[in-house]
Amino acid sequence: MLLSTLLFAGMNACVKHLQHLPALEIIFFRSVFSIVASYVALRRLGVAPFGNNYRLLISRGSTGALALVCYFLALQNLPLATAVTAQYLAPIFTAVMGIWLVREPVRHLQWVFFALSFGGVVLVQQGGPVGPAAGAQGAAGLAFLGIGVFGALLSGLSYNAIRRLRGREHPLVIVFYFPLISLPLAALGCLFSWQLPQGTDWLWLLACGAFTQGAQVAMTRAYQLERLSRVAPLNYLGMFYALGLGYVFFAESFGPVAYAGMTLVLLGVGLNAWYTSRADARAAALAPAEEVVA
């Protein structure tokens, strides 16, 4: 998951740099790269590309594709850190919906850690950026922020579908369904809005596809191997990448309130990881004794 957040940060920077191109067009080129890379890898591994659990795979692909559209719109019209902030509601949605969708309970103390991280996200949004890099303002800014939050909700549904596919499908099959659904969706949108990429745009589009493919594979594997409530909050660490990249490449400046928010996010993530590791280790230690009693 740590590798995934780093690679997604690279993708974010590419999308932000390509803000002069329509969001669906970037998704189209990204999907072309991903579908080719996934298919070639699956064929080399001798794995059937279309899998067997069609309903769950299509659910993961469709919710992921719609979430991606929302996220790219937010990235292009809001400051980098603000758009990423909205997306960081996804781990909370993931863990909460996981209570019903995959029957993974969230321990009481974890809600406190989630609240810490969420409060930090709110502070980061209120603390910056300022000036010419502030992005859409007023009603337009709120609308794009709402789109970003809705995208985070859809991401939560998508991540739960990944978790339900644990042990049923190869991770690359799950990744393959993402561009399989998003490619025709993006192609349809490009019919109404097309702008031919120029010069270095092609290199940025290629980098966007490469970053995304690597991040998707790493993220999918993480969600299949570990509890949702344990790994999902690690997405918050990507905020630090967003803050750094926004400052270096897009002149997005922040105040002390934003840095206080960063501290809260890191505290919530760290405490959640420590608490779940300790609780899981305790449960594993008690399991043999319970079996003997039974």
Automatic annotation (TrEMBL):
Superkingdom of the source species: Bacteria
Gene3D superfamilies: 1.10.3730.20
Pfam entry (one): EamA
Record keywords, A-Z: Membrane, Transmembrane, Transmembrane helix
Gene Ontology CC annotation, any one: membrane
Transmembrane stretches, start-end: 23-42, 54-74, 80-102, 109-127, 139-162, 174-196, 202-219, 231-250, 256-275
Membrane topology according to the record: Multi-pass membrane protein
UniProt entry tagged with the keyword Repeat: no
EamA domain: residues covered: 1-124, 148-271
Subcellular location: Membrane
Keyword set includes Hydrolase: no
Primary location recorded for the protein, binned into one broad class: membrane
InterPro entries listed in its UniProt record: EamA_dom (IPR000620), EmrE-like (IPR037185)
Protein name: EamA domain-containing membrane protein RarD
Organism: Hymenobacter arizonensis
